[in-house]
Amino acid sequence: VNGARDVRLERWLGRVLSVGVAVSTVLLGAGLALALAGAAPGTSARLLRIGLIALMATPVARVVISVVEYGSKRDWAFVALTATVLGMLMMSFVIS
Amino acid sequence: MALFLAGGVAGTMGALLGLGGGVFLVPLLVLVFDVPMRVAVGISLTTVIATSSVATSATLGRSLINLRLGMVLEVATTAGGLTGGLVAVLLSPATLQRAFGVVTAFAALVMLGRLQRRNVMLDPAADPGWLGGRYHEDESGTTVTYRVKRLPLALAVSFAAGSVSSLLGLGGGILKVPALNAWCGVPLRAAAATSAFMIGVTATAGAVIYYGRGEIVPWMAAAAILGVMVGSRAGFHAGARLRAMWLKLLLALILVSVSVLMFARAS
Hints:
The complex is a heterodimer of chains A (about 100) and B (about 270).
Chain A: H1 7-37, H2 41-72, H3 76-95
Helix pairs in contact in A: 1-2, 2-3
Chain B: H1 2-17, H2 22-31, H3 37-59, H4 67-87, H5 93-112, E1 133-137, E2 142-146, H6 151-168, H7 173-183, H8 188-212, H9 218-241, H10 244-266
Antiparallel strand pairs in B: 1-2
Helix pairs in contact in B: 1-2, 1-3, 1-8, 1-9, 2-3, 3-8, 3-9, 4-6, 4-8, 5-7, 5-10, 6-7, 6-8, 7-8
């Protein structure tokens, strides 16, 4: 495993992060534009809220994919590590 | 508009050095925009997530990010993030700021002492060990290799970085990057890229808690985040061209300023 690169994982993570960034940018941009224009206050608040949630969900999705990928490689040490991180993230959701 | 620009500056610096950029954004929001500390911290945490996602998607595939090292250290930063959120109420803000000032000043000294030293082995056949890595470096035009040393120390620093992250609205890279570079054998670029990769998860743990308490003002966060999205791309492109020595100098300079600022605010 020395210096092994996780090529497939990197590709997947790249895709997820780009999509997450694109989605939250569009939602937040549209929400902010509407808010500044003073039009449709309900819609703009909703867009901003969903945009923020999409932003916070992106790193969570990244961790979920890592767990799955290491699982499919039967690399149990890293499954345990990434699953622990995921568990702690879930705890912060529960606390809030 | 001003918030957008503030986010832009924070994002550029953040992506350049693997920091979240919160180190610039929190003081800016509090001192210039007169925003309450807790609101500033919440907004800052959301921008840290943005910096991390943008910087990581830009650097993936260049093997600068040490995924495995990042995932090991993430356990410590996330645990630190949760702990920090829970003990935040026990400590006075002044105490926190002074402690932060001491740590950043120390990190600056460590960085300055290492300007001319490099962690990389130029022999492409060198063994990187369990968590080390190798990547193509434009500065020397070769593939360089490094090993990770003193992992327990890296874990301890990551835990501390995670706790200050949710307390002060930072990504925590300001502690991790100097420690990984100076003590753990990781070259600056790899340390910055790996830190940028981790801070998204650390900041999410904190941001979710602030969001749940309703302390994140959506339109302000949106303006700052959009600024960060633009700025972090710029920072990423600049970072690839600058020499490692200049990056270290810049980091040391920022650490000193933050340290002074924290002491000034604590007294």
